[in-house]
Write a structure and sequence with these properties.
Length: about 60
C-alpha cells in the first residue's frame, strides 16, 4: 500500500525546512531521513574549520 501524497502546504513546509537547514551552511551536511515514504527527520551537521598555526608549535 502506497503512502498518501502530502498536501501542498506540507510539501511547502518540508521544502522550507530543508532550505532553512541549508542556509548559512559552509561545511557540513544535511541528512533527510525517510521512513515508509515519509520525511520524518532533517539532520544538519555543521563542521567548523579551524585554521592557522597553533601558538608555540613552531610550525
Amino acid at each position: 500500500m502506497a503512502a498518501p501524497e502530502p498536501t501542498e502546504s506540507r510539501r511547502d513546509q518540508l521544502a522550507e525546512s530543508i532550505l532553512e537547514a541549508l542556509r548559512g551552511l559552509r561545511f557540513g551536511s544535511v541528512e533527510i531521513v525517510v521512513h515508509e515514504a515519509r520525511v520524518v527527520q532533517i539532520v544538519r551537521t555543521e563542521k567548523v574549520r579551524v585554521g592557522g598555526e597553533i601558538p608555540g608549535n613552531g610550525r
